[in-house]
Amino acid sequence: MTDQPEKFDLRSQGIAEEKRQGLLRLFPEVNTEGGKIDFDRLKLTLGETLDVGKERYGMTWPGKSECFKTIQAPSLGTLRPSPEESVNFDTTENLIIEGDNLEVLKLLQKSYLGKVKMIYIDPPFNTGNDFIYPDNYTESLQTYLEYTGQVDSQGKKFGTNTDADGRFHSKWLNMMYPRLYLARNLLRDDGVLFVSIDDHENDNLRKLCGEIFGEEALIGTIVWRRRQVSDNRNLTNFSTDHEYVLSIARTNTALMGQPKDLSKYSNPDDDPRGPWMSDNLTGLANARERPNLHYDIVHPVTGVKYPPLSSRGWCYEKQRMLRLVEENRILWPSKPDGRPRLKRFLNEIRSQFTGFSSVQDPGFTTDGTRDLEELFGEKTLGFPKPRKLVSKLLAQATTAGTNDLVLDFFAGSGTTAHAVLDLNNQDGGNRKFILVQLPEPTGREDYPTIADIAKERVRRVIMKLNDEDKAKLDLNDASKQGRGFRVFKLAESNFMPWNAEVPHDTPALERQLEMHVDHIREGRTADDILYEILLKSGFPLTTPVETITLAGLTVNSVAGGALLICLERALTLELIRAMAEQKPERVVCLDEGFAGNDQLKANAVQIFKTKGVTSFKTV
Q1: Max CA-CA distance within the chain?
Q2: Cβ proximity of 550 and 518 under 8 Å
Q3: Which of 227, 229, 176, 185 is nearest to 206 (CA)?
Q4: Which of 176, 382, 506, 616 has its Cα between 20 and 30 A from that of 33?
């Protein structure tokens, strides 16, 4: 530390800088004196593995280079808490975030990096009528604020993407690439991404995910039947009754399928070959026509013969069966009418997970509509994904015994949250969810936006499950399942940044200086500021925060005292000393709290330093 505290960085995580630092950790020899990358040295380091040819296999489209600029541009937004729209705000670990998902994904990078077990998204299929994202992706926060009426409109366009547009596919790819890129960072090493898609962009999506995740990360494509009755209303008389769910792994440690039930395996006879179970030796029903499976098994000691079932035979041919007898793998019956059985060992199982078929039929789009109608008593949105489809994916990618985190950043009506809560109720799990949804207008007075429908849907699901628990013995202890959600809304930062582009005349500079002294936006609350600091300090939005009193003033203790956040406007030396005595790792205070008292600020730096505080920042 110097004699001045560090300035708190209000930007989201710098993706380009993170990549640069990672490259330097792998190849420190390419570091230049200015801390940049020496690409000539990097080429020498990589040797023949570097592809320097002009022609190479890959995917490109108009605007792809701008995607990287979009990814690398940090967000200066924040997520403002909305407790009045939440359920059990102070205790739940579920989140519903209202905002543009590109900005939200950027803001989640620090706090949720590598923490998400499963992502499911149902993005716009690019049919020409479902595409409402801005044309100017580099100004995502600004266009979002204009779209939601939080600032004056400057004519940014939100609209459809029709196939008459010359960049029909390119616009969709430009929208998806940055979002999938940022989403990959949030997945755990054993995490899985599921993306619903149809024929319009299925081929492009596979190539896009292959580039971002690596072709080897593609687990497979699930085909699910979405339509119960064929549609013959089109000119070709060809009814497309299916959609796809593309399955992508973060790394090769991700597995699909549920663990097999291994409770039948034990070792009552202390067999040195390990735990085993009794298994059937009878053949399949179609074995009648296979004479090599019809023979007598002879007990090697008693000489008793056990003939096969005439309709099935045995499951193995005779030579293999004789080998099993020699290896003492046959369990001989103790009763006259008993049948020999196989001693199958646990170590013979190729996989401890059940298989997962690429063809699924868990429900139709009409079932998704019915899910909503049953909750609302009326039709609110047409053809959302059926809850059973998402539940099927959840059952394959998550487990009940853990607090697996599930993310859906094209949340729509909240199907994913509904599926998480329902599956938790069935198996006693405690999965958490994060939903992100743009407040797209619905034209309704009761639920003005799709985000409002999602929030109300989850409220009603929680009420329904709680009512069901009241009528039965709660064996799963649903009170521990985190039935609730915290609502946050995307907005401009609570702090007005210094604008270097203002005219350099005296009145304009004076206004900038005044704003720099009192730079908190009008109408922002202490909780607004607290959660912005929390998020941009790398703590999840559900991190426990305790309000404590030190030297007669209020301090927020985060994560058991690891971080202290003081939002007092008039700091004192006594408060600084009291916070230092708590021995936190980090401290953040409002710069306004020092009120120009440079001596107090310098003293604070030294006091925190002597108590082992590793980071003291002001904002």
Answers
A1: 110
A2: no
A3: 176
A4: 616
d(CA 275, CA 309): 29
Question: For residue 155, what pLDDT is reported?
Answer: 45
Bridge partners, 549 (sequence order): 554
- Residue ranges, CATH 3.40.50.150, the chain: 115-134+153-230+238-253+364-489
Q: CA-to-CA distance for 602 and 587, rounded, in angstroms?
A: 14
Q: How does DSSP assign 88-132, residue by residue?
A: STTT---EEEES-HHHHHHHHHHHHTT-EEEEEE-----SSSS--
Q: What is the three-class DSSP state of 25?
A: helix
Partners of 434 in beta bridges: 95, 407
Question: Are 435 and 461 spatial neighbours (Cβ–Cβ below 8 Å)?
Answer: no
C-alpha closest to that of 538 among 571, 578, 585: 585
Phi then psi for residue 48, to 5 deg, are -75, -10
**β-strands 341-345, 615-618: how paired?**
unpaired
Alpha carbons 405 and 407: distance in angstroms, whole number: 7
**Overall pTM > 0.85:** no
Report d(CA 12, CA 103) in Å as an integer: 9
Report how far residue 416's alpha carbon sits from residue 437's, in angstroms, rounded to the nearest whole number.
12
Closest by CA to 248, choosing from 278, 290, 215, is 215
Question: Is the separation of the CB atoms in 70 and 138 below 8 Å?
Answer: yes
Cβ-contact 458, 485 below 8 angstroms: yes
Phi, psi of 441 (to 5 degrees): -60, 140
**Could you give the C-alpha distances from 173 to 165, 195, 201, 217, 220, in angstroms and in order?**
14, 14, 9, 19, 21
pLDDT of the residue at 354:
60
Annotate 590-603 with DSSP letters as a single string.
-GGGGTT-HHHHHH
d(CA 213, CA 423): 28
User: Radius of gyration of the chain from Cα atoms?
Assistant: 30
SS3 323: helix
Within the chain, how many helices (H) and strands (E) appear? 16, 21
**131 bridge partner residues:** none
CATH code at 115-134+153-230+238-253+364-489: 3.40.50.150
The mean pLDDT values, 10 residues at a time, for the chain of 619 residues are 82 82 80 77 70 71 90 93 97 96 96 97 78 58 77 56 68 92 96 93 93 90 80 67 90 64 88 93 76 91 90 90 94 90 87 63 80 91 88 90 94 97 93 95 93 97 93 60 91 79 59 63 96 97 97 97 96 97 97 91 96 95
